[in-house]
């Protein structure tokens, strides 16, 4: 999983562990205090389709282990399908091409925002028959598009944008990537799920460690979002919880200046 994620050409190398970490924790998100969302983006020819079809979808395991949606899906349809389930949501072609699609995408982003953390709160929708329906959301999502439309700080802080870079149609690059992707099958995804279930305790410990380190540099919301992604990455590279020293050394290799410059406030 780690090797396959690293073989893609990213705008920044840190995006590889973020993606690998999300794939590791996505199916156990209901057991976690934070359910991070990621937004995969990149121009034409950067490998988004390859990442979705050859890495992300098979890493989720057998059919039915995740909800795979495409353009045209509405917030109501997504909400009524997921209900109180914690299966991952993967949304391809999450594009905005006009006023109508922008409104649809924004309503789905609002729904994903509600699933980001455990608060005990519920979404209550009134029905035409006078009976309300209650929804408890507890899932992590991955969306993919060319354009990224996160309009406010509340949304930006709950998504990690992972941008692919052009690979220039390099045959050498494709050969290395193809070899790494060959092992990512639905059977592999089920084994990954079993490892995540067995390591929920380690994920929570890793989350505490990474979020503590990140909070000192970037603030608590950033630390919660990215700390959980790195917590998932941690169980892929070690059977033991990461130490504070390991976390500090790992984060030190990240260039967080771009995230720091992008942090804004809607106050």
Explain what you see.
The strands form two sheets. The protein has a five-stranded parallel beta sheet with strand order 2-3-6-1-7, covered by helices on one side. A two-stranded antiparallel sheet has the order 4-5. It is of the alpha/beta class and 267 residues long. Strand 2 (67-69), helix 4 (75-82) and strand 3 form a beta-alpha-beta unit. The protein has helices spanning 2-7, 15-25, 48-59, 75-82, 99-115, 153-156, 171-181, 186-198, 200-218, 220-237, 244-252, 257-262; strands at residues 37-41, 67-69, 89-91, 123-125, 133-135, 141-145, 159-163. It is 50% helix and 10% strand.
Helix fraction, binned, reads: 40-55%
What is the average per-residue confidence, as pLDDT, rounded to a whole number?
A: 88
What sequence of helices (H) and strands (E) makes up the elements?
A: HHEHEHEHEEEHEHHHHHH
Number of helical regions: 12
Strand content: 5-15%
Structural class: alpha/beta
> Shape, please?
globular
Number of strands: 7
Distance between the termini: 40 Å
Reported for the largest beta sheet, the result is:
5 strands, parallel
Task: State Rg.
Answer: 18 Å
Runs in which pLDDT lies below 50 for 5 or more consecutive residues are none
Order of strands across the main sheet: 2-3-6-1-7
